């Protein structure tokens, strides 16, 4: 065959530079275009190699291949030609997992190294015995409709059946004739990924891959169905490509080899060069983590070391044990007792350090609550390495620098400065770095349920309020300590029409209708409804700002007697604000659009299109059920809007659960901890107003507030609009000097809790 099996979009000739070549094997009946939405989401140094076998796509006129040996031999030969010295990762989805496996075996036999083999939503070789018999058209039709490969009505058209079914028949025959017992077991790092909503290849099936490598086997889960690589590409890409050998380490749960063995093999990277004085190198430890060799009271150096620990959370929790081991070494060197508490997920842990209080009237502990995990840094391109902790132009860049390793560093540095000075507090001070804050089942709520009474907090300080500057960008204006969080509801849109050949497009296609509905929802604005905390904050902001127009708009909004007046003034507040996205979120219900999916074959106009978005609610403001009804009324019958609750939940149950969260009272700010914070702000930011506030996001505070434990949120350093926009985004960063000043604020807060002599 003269037509090549492999293509690397955008690359001609092959790039010989160092990097990764990700070779993607499509599921049954498909070809390389099924990975089309991966382009632009891959790490910067990764090229995507797509496979087009005979009988489909640009090779539709060729005879399909139904022999696994011929298939794998052809692909392996072309990979050798395209590799150009790059790191190889083979990624197979569904049937593609077997094809990737057999191709991997041939490459290794030929002396070509394979960095990683990834099986996504696929059965292992041992599930196939070569006795499947002949595949019929009815078998192919049942497979195509049963797995959601195509819409059932599409197959009623003989023209489409003629195009769609031959590749499916060929691939099903290939699987039916395949005998996995004949395959050797290679020595390769293997990642086996199951999709949580996949009815065809469940977790128990994917777990059998552990027996099909003599190397390390990592088992991961992602949200989505059988075609999660299309529905949830970012999560699948992260699962497959994070932590490659020779690149930065993965932070995943590892079965088979064991977490400790993998930590030693993968995480023992040696020292990383410092980028600034005080940002000391991290050295490997015998336990497989790294030690911190700098000054533990230097928050900048600590933050750099924390960022260099890649604790990315792909959705089901991160590998936080090496991060915890580093913290353990820091606190133990200062004589502070520590504890690492495991969760059911291997390598995913909670870390505690406790400085005991003194005196006869000791109060319940103050908990400084941070989180170890960070969101992944994939998809959008960074201008710096997100896990290098680089400092440029007075800014510290890195995933988690703002959310929330910078805050963690301020907590640790301030606390250990008191310890170094021999301070005694009137209560225990507990530093807790929790896991699964971003996503996952084993966060703070799980811990408080499984270990009741272990912390027994009197008050908690975690992430939350901001320090903002005046319009000049230099003069601090207002500092806030948040006393409650917004809560969000996941909503799903679906538009439908009918599937057809791309030669016959029509008015009202599902994708176009979805775009129109999304545009309409994007223009929707909830009424301005500041709750009690927001009103207090904006009243203080009106006194703090030197911008007279903003102050006037704020007072008009707070004094408005009608909804129309309040909406008009509130819109003016947002328009005049230096941080409009932040202040808008503190004033109303907001919608944030997170994903859209449609299409499954390049010559088919799909019959459905879906999108998901989050509606975030202020406590004491809009009722979630009323907002859902309003949105449904807005879009009419052009799309179906559904509430996405927990598994097994009805819409009403999901709404009632959210109403319960929104009814949790604000944290009391008539406390010694709140007053200590206000005093600290006056010392570090003279003349700046320090006020209670409503947080615009959700944190780990809710389980504590449900137990009537006051929780306060702070980002103690000054921020601007650009920094806020980059939270969870590209080029996340904080100011170096702002971090140092914020650490001083935390130090002064703790100073207010020292025991009397």
From TrEMBL:
<dbReference type="Pfam" id="PF00975">
    <property type="entry name" value="Thioesterase"/>
</dbReference>
<protein>
    <recommendedName>
        <fullName>Thioesterase domain-containing protein</fullName>
    </recommendedName>
</protein>
<dbReference type="InterPro" id="IPR050072">
    <property type="entry name" value="Peptidase_M20A"/>
</dbReference>
<dbReference type="Pfam" id="PF01546">
    <property type="entry name" value="Peptidase_M20"/>
</dbReference>
<feature type="domain" description="Thioesterase">
    <location>
        <begin position="23"/>
        <end position="240"/>
    </location>
</feature>
<keyword id="KW-0862">Zinc</keyword>
<dbReference type="InterPro" id="IPR001031">
    <property type="entry name" value="Thioesterase"/>
</dbReference>
<dbReference type="InterPro" id="IPR002933">
    <property type="entry name" value="Peptidase_M20"/>
</dbReference>
<dbReference type="GO" id="GO:0016787">
    <property type="term" value="F:hydrolase activity"/>
</dbReference>
<dbReference type="InterPro" id="IPR029058">
    <property type="entry name" value="AB_hydrolase_fold"/>
</dbReference>
